[in-house]
Amino acid sequence: MRLDLDFGRGLVGHVMLDDVTDAQYAEIADYFVPLINEKKLKSRDAIGRAFVLATEVCPDANPSDLWHHVLYRMYIREKIGTDPSQSWVRTSGRPSRWHSSNATILFWPRMESDSQPCSRGKRGWH
Q1: Which of 6, 79, 92, 106 could form a disulfide with 84 if both were Cys (CB 3.0 to 4.6 A apart)?
Q2: Full-model pTM
């Protein structure tokens, strides 16, 4: 799929998302966009749920592409009531655990394989 990008000030570009179809992109958007401004849902939970869905809908796609080119760009475009880029930095960078029936994903500061939450000790994150 070709995703067109508009950076403002006349700067445009595109990125090719391998293993993501237009229909898959639309499915992710249909799920994620309503969650972005849902007042009863924390943004980090909306992002986490959408990432799990995106990896399930597009199992062969690069997860980094889904994170940056799909979810990040949707969030920045659709978030209202706050500076979306700052909101993304705050919500997507927290250590969070998101569950799905068949996936547990743990982000930053490092990936864990045993699904244990990261904790900060005297020597840093572990």
Answers
A1: 79
A2: 0.69
